[in-house]
Write a structure and sequence with these properties.
Blueprint (H helix, E strand, L loop, with lengths): L3 H45 L2 H18 L6 H25 L1 H4 L17 H22 L2 H21 L6 H9 L1 H11 L4 H24 L1 H7 L8 H18 L1 H4 L5 H24 L2 H24 L3
Length: about 325
Amino acid sequence: MSVQQPAVREAQARAKRERDSAKPQVQCAASMNDRRYSKARVADLMELTKPRITLLVLVTTLVGFYMGSRDGINLSLLVHTILGTALVASGASALNEYVERDFDARMARTRNRPLPDGRLSPSEALVFSAVISAAGVTYLLYFVNALTAVLGAVTLAGYILVYTPLKTRTALCTLIGAFPGAAPPMMGWTAATGRIDAVALSLFAILFLWQMPHFFAIAWIFTEDYTRAGFSIHVSGDRTGRQIIFFCCALIPVSILPTFFGLTGMTYFVGAVLLGFLYLGYGFAVALFRSNTHAHRLLRVSIFYLPALLALMMVDKV
């Protein structure tokens, strides 16, 4: 036994050294897993805010601010406006996903979102979205002005408390949802000017009317998906086609109002008319041929129309 004891002790010491050397590797692996988990969680929270929609909101807000800035751009105020609006828009989208999580789970196009996919818990999403929404309204109140903060709060409430519940009750939800959707350029205008006037309302009206064919095209393409989820929407058919034509026609005269108000020149006027007839032409094609192919084309044209119109407006500002 005396001969074996040193060998046993040496084996035990070697095993202890191996265990001790393995601990840092285990801790390092755990730390890497924690970092990966944290990054994934942040990415899921960001996805909850619908970044592409938020970007569109910020672009239209920027245009409204720029058009309302008659004596030069107040960069500090612009930054505050963008930050506050980004928080409100992100919070609205996140709250929408929280409320609609069960419906999203039934739709092929939304079932992989963080909530229906189980990557985030409902309580996490609710706390996150409520905090950034409240922070956005408060930020606008303190760093921009009360009018813009009120518009942000009304837009948020309208989107979550009116539009979102109505999506399962009436096809009029698209029309009603276009009201909060059209607010961002007016918020940009009020941030720069501190008032709502006819020009601000014209910017609101342009975005309001643009949304209708845009969302009708989406509803046409995903009619089966929306129906499966239980949403009441304008399904593909004659009625939706007629409404697409109506709103495209209404958009043409409304889109040239900035020129009549002295905000833009004739370059914008001509460009707005041409873009309007282009939009209308693709709308007519959807109503005439009633196919998903033409609805896809209208959707792509709508995505082209808005930034082109806004760019013309900014370039030809008087």
